[in-house]
Amino acid sequence: MSSSRRSLSFPILVIFLLQCLSPALASESDHRYEPDDRVILWVNKVGPYNNPQETYNYHSLPFCGASGNATHKWGGLGEVLGGNELIDSQIEIKFQKNVDKATICRLELDEAKVKHFKDAIKKNYWFEFFMDDLPLWGFVGELHPEKDSDSSKHMLYTHKKITIQYNKDQIIHVNLTQENPKSLEVGMTLDLTYSVKWDTTNVTFGRRFDVYLDYPFFEHQVCSFRGSCCTAIWFSFKCYCLLAFWQPPVLNAWYMSKQSTYHLIHFFSF
């Protein structure tokens, strides 16, 4: 009986962690859409696959796309420590409306951009998007071995194939496939494109996180979440030690006279 309970508790814990990792977006809290309603694709972070705690804002790579007035979404402390900063991709996606192929933007490659992308591809960079609180993952590019040479050609994926499954008026599953790799050469202009395919499913909204239990990317998310928790605990412990043990007479007298947490924080800050 106890082993059965343990076997059931692990998937529940994993789903709970995934829901904690998903950004809480007030504008999408009801998760219900009408036909042709806009569905926002949020870009989040990017970093080396082998080090999930090393993450950067998606636009730290020289992608073209969102304008300067793109909407930003910030989460709680855990999401900030996890490096999450959601920015509206401004990619046009509407509920139940297929897109065969559309242009996101045109990427003009100069020497600095080529170097930046090549370094990211060499380090096996992956990125994370969100749609209706559901994560999408993909790699920035790939290496193609060159014939009669020990070197490899750096290829940047230029097409995003987005597949969305829905049940009535709710999004159940999203999937992203990176396609159409192009070589990186100074002076070239690459068309970054996307397509959207909507399919129906019988999976209920309450079971939509189940599919992520088998995702290898999710293991990296759990590791990153664990690291963020450790950082928060370590920071809290250091603050406690500072306040509990480092109280010279001047600070003690000042604190006793003011008896204000705000003044104490102000004292440490300035």
How do you describe this structure in short?
The protein is α+β, with helices and mostly antiparallel strands. The protein has helices at about 1-20, 75-80, 110-120, 215-245, 250-260, 260-270, and strands at about 40-50, 55, 70-75, 85-90, 100-110, 125-130, 135-140, 140-145, 150-165, 170-185, 190-200. α1 (about 1-20) packs across α4.
Overview features:
single chain; 270 residues; alpha+beta; 2 domains; six-stranded antiparallel sheet; five-stranded mixed sheet; 32% helix; disordered C terminus
Description of the structure:
- Its main location: membrane.
- This is Transmembrane 9 superfamily member.
- Residues 1-26 form the signal peptide.
- Belongs to the nonaspanin (TM9SF) (TC 9.A.2) family.
- The chain is an alpha+beta fold.
- The protein folds into two domains: 9-216, no CATH class; 229-269, no CATH class.
- The chain is 32% helix and 31% strand.
- The chain is built from six helices and eleven strands.
- It has helices at 2-21, 77-81, 111-122, 216-245, 249-258, 261-269; strands at residues 41-48, 56-57, 72-73, 86-88, 99-108, 125-131, 134-139, 141-145, 152-167, 170-183, 189-200.
- Strands 1, 2, 3, 4, 6 and 7 form a six-stranded antiparallel sheet that branches. Strands 5, 8, 9, 10 and 11 form a five-stranded mixed sheet that branches.
- α1 crosses α4.
- The radius of gyration is 23 Å and the shape is globular.
Radius of gyration: 23 Å
How many helices does DSSP assign? 6
How much helicity do the residues have?
Answer: 25-40%
Q: Are there runs of 5+ residues with pLDDT below 50, and where?
A: 1-8, 21-27, 258-270
β-strand number: 11
Domain count: 2
Question: Largest sheet, if any?
Answer: 6 strands, antiparallel
Structural class: alpha+beta
Q: Could you state the order of secondary-structure elements as H and E?
A: HEEEHEEHEEEEEEHHH
How big a fraction of the residues is strand? 25-35%
The overall pLDDT average reads: 79
Global geometry:
globular
Q: Give the termini distance in whole angstroms.
A: 58 Å
